[in-house]
Amino acid sequence: MISTISNMNANDIKFNGQNYDDWVEYVKLNVGLLGFDSALVLDEPTKPIDTSLEADKKLWENWERSNRLMMSFLKLSIAFNVKPSQPKTGNVREFVAEIKKCTMTNIMDKFVVAALIDDYLIESTP
Fold it and tell me: E strands within 2-123?
């Protein structure tokens, strides 16, 4: 399992701000194959207390481990130039949602800029 993470190379898909769909599929496949995707597919369980059932404690431990490992994998799969603007959360679902939101914002920003440029060019043409 760890060898797969440590063998990430230039052929792997890294999120670059414009390839969310490919990146998220790549992430889901890899963490699923590695067996630590529960933080992505399960809601975060309630953190156990001393009197919690053993099953609840085990569920939390498994989810927390999955979340921690997947966060490491996600951070490894982000292009260097995007890292400074990556979300500041420790929850996998929140992290992926923020990445998607930023991607959609960037798409809309580009669309608006393109529309403004088109309007300017049309108005500037004699």
Answer: none
Tell me the C-alpha to C-alpha distance, in Å, between residue 98 and each of 38, 50, 88, 90, 94: 19, 33, 9, 12, 6
Residue whose pair of structure tokens reads 């929140």 in the numeric block: 94
Count Cα atoms within 13 angstroms, Cβ side, for 2: 0
Q: Is the pTM of this model over 0.85?
A: no
Q: What are phi and psi of 30, to 5 degrees?
A: -65, -45
Q: Which of 93, 34, 29, 38 is nearest to 65 (CA)?
A: 38
SS3 state at 124: helix
What pLDDT sits at residue 111?
Answer: 53
* C-alpha neighbours within 13 Å on the C-beta side of residue 40: 19
Q: Which residues, 6+ apart, have CB-to-CB distance to 83 below 8 Å?
A: 75
User: What integer best gives the mean pLDDT of the chain?
Assistant: 80
3-state helix, strand, coil in the chain (%, to 5): 65, 0, 35
